[in-house]
């Protein structure tokens, strides 16, 4: 499990407890990597406190480097520690992603998928409390990406809640090297799929209930910057870069 966290002290403890309850109950052994990206609110202290009683380890950036850098370091650590048949899950640390879904995502990997996305665009998906402009943005992004970079089985290109077969991440790191995870901001989630798309994998989605209504504090996504970086990225990838 990779949890990128930037100033999530208010929610991280609750999420770690839920993860432990749900994964233990499901009989899934786990290891959690919290990537604290220069938080100033004591996120690292919370992670250390839980590390004393749960399999939690902390990777800390002294300064804020952005979601992409956190995902990069988290996935690299996870890929180093994992066996190819293990499953690597990424999710938000703000407790808006339900840990209960990990069981189903893992099930789909055991059934033959390589990448499983918790999707806001499947029958049964619900998004609760997401502001209209954010819903419009994510929906517009999904439509545009589905047309320009179709991937069979993928509708939600931006959600951070995903499960990967560990061997796939290890193979992508071997194939692309550091270029596999070279996007700093929120556009990293799109870019990972565009890179994995070329590896002819099996992608799937599960319907996901996004509980944005229980989110504490504001979103850390800088909307304007994410739109412009994502469009630049699409253009570059379309041109073969
Ligand atoms: N490491 C790191 N994580 C970040 C950064 N910005 C956001 N995050 C984390 O990425 C996840 C997504 O951010 P969030 O504010 O929930 O975005 P939203 O769900 O799209 O509104 C959360 O777990 C944040 O703590 C950052 O600059 N660095
Ligand atoms: Mg979030």
CATH topology: Spore Coat Polysaccharide Biosynthesis Protein SpsA, Chain A
Count of discrete structural domains: 1
Order of helices and strands: EHEHEHEHEEHEHHEEH
Strand content: 15-25%
Q: What about the largest sheet?
A: 4 strands, mixed
Q: Detail the poorly predicted runs.
A: none
Radius of gyration, whole Å? 17 Å
* Strand tally: 9
CATH homologous superfamily title: Spore Coat Polysaccharide Biosynthesis Protein SpsA, Chain A
The CATH architecture term is: Alpha-Beta Complex
Ligand species: guanosine-5'-diphosphate, magnesium ion
Mean pLDDT: 95
In words, what does this structure look like?
- Helix 3 crosses helix 6 (166-176).
- The chain has helices at 9-25, 43-51, 67-81, 101-110, 132-148, 166-176, 188-197, 223-238, and strands spanning 2-5, 32-37, 56-61, 87-90, 115-119, 126-128, 162-165, 203-207, 209-211.
- The model has no long low-confidence stretch (mean pLDDT 95).
- The protein has 8 helices and 9 strands.
- The strands form 3 sheets. It has a 4-stranded mixed β-sheet, sandwiched between helices. The protein has a 3-stranded parallel β-sheet with strand order 1-2-3, sandwiched between helices. The chain has a two-stranded parallel sheet with strand order 6-9.
- The chain has a single domain (2-238), classed as Spore Coat Polysaccharide Biosynthesis Protein SpsA, Chain A (Alpha-Beta Complex).
- With 241 residues, it is of the alpha/beta class.
